[in-house]
Amino acid sequence: MKQHWYNYLWICSVLYFALGFFNILFAWLGLISFFLPLIFAIGKGSKGFCNRYCDRGQLLRMLGNQKGFSRKKDMPDWMKGKAFRYGFLLFFLTMFVSMLLRTWQVSTGAATLRETVTLFWTFQVPWHFASPAGATPWVAQFTFGLYSLMLTSAILGILTMLLYKPRSWCVYCPMGTMTQLICRAKAGDSDAEKKPMP
Amino acid sequence: MVIEKPKPRPPAKRRAVPDRDRCVACGACEAVCPRGAIKVWKGSYSVVDASRCVGCGLCARECPASVIAIEVIA
Ligand code: SF4
Ligand code: SF4
Ligand code: SF4
Questions:
Q1: Closest CA to ligand 2's atom 3
Q2: Which of A66, A86, A144, B42 has most Cβ atoms within 10 angstroms of its Cβ?
């Protein structure tokens, strides 16, 4: 397969997790992965981000296809179903809001900064070594939260890449599901059959 | 005795048929198609250009949601 420049965007994923290991403030960059797909979807009604420029998608494709780490088996039906996809999106959004809430609590002094990365919304992993000296506590709290979400979802993505198809994560990725919903709403009643391929 | 050579049968025409409803519009199919025959339409689902698709099945193997069937046509 011909390689395009965007096939190398997986490097961004690796850099992201590496930088967050040294200084958690780099985790703010993770917001790009939230805003870019939404800009594509809301602005252009396109999944261009998923289809080409997502570093996560490229990472899973590279590991699963190029490096051959994937078993390339079908995912279980429940995992591909709408109930799970929409349920996971809701769960993810709830966790995102709870992270914002905690950030707000830290900013008002109602809670103190927790220098841990939370994996799978449960396990607290000490991460004080990457804590930025002298940063405003809520700023640091937000980055710990964002990094936790990014790392948890990357681990889930890699696990399902190994077990099933390389880009299995993209079936239940909350950003993928959300942007598809937006695009479908924007496409409305129009139909690909009536207007053939671009 | 003359053994007649069997006439070569024309190869069955195959074509990719994605399931719109269950497609997650990830574009993994688009990325592997050697003929540029499958595209994600308006971020909603994939559509196949029947005149370009040769039914090789690469997209079907790649699709993480396993929603592409390779159907024999004619
Ligand atoms: S579904 Fe998620 S991980 Fe996959 S390409 Fe889209 S944003 Fe990236
Ligand atoms: S079957 Fe082959 S030619 Fe047809 S859309 Fe899939 S990858 Fe492309
Ligand atoms: S790979 Fe499968 S789920 Fe993804 S866009 Fe193509 S048909 Fe849809």
A1: B53
A2: A144
Q: Which of A171, A173, A177 to mutate to test the pocket of ligand 1 (most atoms within 8 A of CB)?
A: A173
| Extents of the domains making up chain A | 5-187
Q: Tell me how far the alpha carbon of residue B19 lies from the centroid of ligand 1, in angstroms.
A: 20
Q: What is the DSSP letter of A110?
A: S
- Spell out the per-residue pLDDT of chain A, length 198, in tens: 678 999 999 999 999 888 988 888 888 898 998 999 999 999 999 999 999 999 999 999 999 999 999 999 999 999 999 999 999 999 999 999 999 999 999 989 888 888 899 999 888 888 888 888 778 889 999 999 999 999 999 999 999 999 999 999 999 999 999 999 999 999 986 776 655 554
Q: A50 and B26 in contact (C-beta within 8 Å)?
A: yes
Question: Is B35 within 8 Å of chain A by CB?
Answer: no
Helices (H) and strands (E) in chain B, counts: 2, 4
Q: Return d(Cα A102, Cα A84) in angstroms, integer.
A: 27
User: Is the CB–ligand 3 distance for residue B47 below 6 Å?
Assistant: no
Whether A164 and B63 lie within 8 Å, measured CB to CB: no
- DSSP strand pairing (A123-126 vs B13-18): unpaired
- Contact between A75 and B64 using a beta-carbon 8 Å cutoff: yes
Spans of all domains in chain B: 19-73
pTM given for the model: 0.89
